[in-house]
Amino acid sequence: MTSFNHYAFGAVADWLHRTVAGLAPDTHGYRRLRVAPVPIAGLDRAATRFETAYGMAEAGWTAQDGQLVVRAVVPPNTTAVVVLPGGTETEVGSGHHEWTVPDPRARVEPRAVTLNSTLGEIADDPEAYEAVLAAVDALGAEWGGTLRSLKEWTDQRTLDDELVRLPPAAKERLQEALDGLNSRRVVPVVG
């Protein structure tokens, strides 16, 4: 256990409990709970519990086969507002509860990647990110380092915006790499 007297540690732990696992008070004293888990990429489960004045409250989720199993334990003489991933909201009384919903993180179909894709979209797509870096690395180590050294891969700039830093051959090389990636994914390229 780390000290909650250090704000940064306490803030992260609070976020994990209230947001990722999804257990928070909806009124003072936990008489009414809020169970609203937010599954994040890279985790396949999260759970938390808290001893309230009414008993043990618990919330959590597990990812299985493209589904999320959300569980909650509501102590006696309390209620809970449950907001499931996907937006369905319900109210439940005390007891053990379980719901199965589609995993909102499940990738249905990869999006086409073009020179007009934002750096943020590319960074969030590991396959596209690697294809872009490999294409630029093929131009020479000094050019690959140019894109790798970018501090922010955000939605504020497109890949085409960054090509001004690279040699003229980069645009053609990147277009070929993206065309290959999109054809392997069988995604229609728009724009």
Give a short overview:
By secondary structure, the chain is of the alpha+beta class.
Proportion in β-strands: 25-35%
How many β strands by DSSP? 8
**Helix content, binned percent:** 25-40%
What's the Cα radius of gyration?
A: 23 Å
H and E string: HEEEEEEEEHHHHH
Structural class: alpha+beta
Task: Quote the distance from N terminus to C terminus.
Answer: 51 Å
Global shape: elongated
Report strand order across the widest sheet.
1-2-6-7
Uncertain spans: none
> How does the major sheet shape up?
4 strands, mixed
Instruction: Give the count of helical stretches.
Output: 6
Give the integer mean of the pLDDT values.
86
Overview of the molecule:
By secondary structure, this protein is α+β, with helices and mostly antiparallel strands. Helices cover 32% and strands 26% of the residues. The protein contains six helices and eight strands; from the N terminus they run H-E-E-E-E-E-E-E-E-H-H-H-H-H. The strands form two sheets. Strands 1-2-6-7 form a four-stranded mixed β-sheet. A hairpin with a 2-residue loop joins strand 3 and strand 4. The N and C termini lie far apart (51 Å). The relative contact order is 0.11.
Tags for this model:
alpha+beta, 191 residues, 32% helix, 4-stranded antiparallel β-sheet, single chain, 6 helices, 26% strand, 8 strands, 4-stranded mixed β-sheet
Note the topology.
Elements: H1 7-21, E1 23-25, E2 32-35, E3 45-52, E4 55-64, E5 67-74, E6 79-83, E7 89-92, E8 95-102, H2 119-123, H3 126-137, H4 141-148, H5 159-162, H6 169-185
Parallel strand pairs: 2-6
Antiparallel strand pairs: 1-2, 3-4, 4-5, 5-8, 6-7
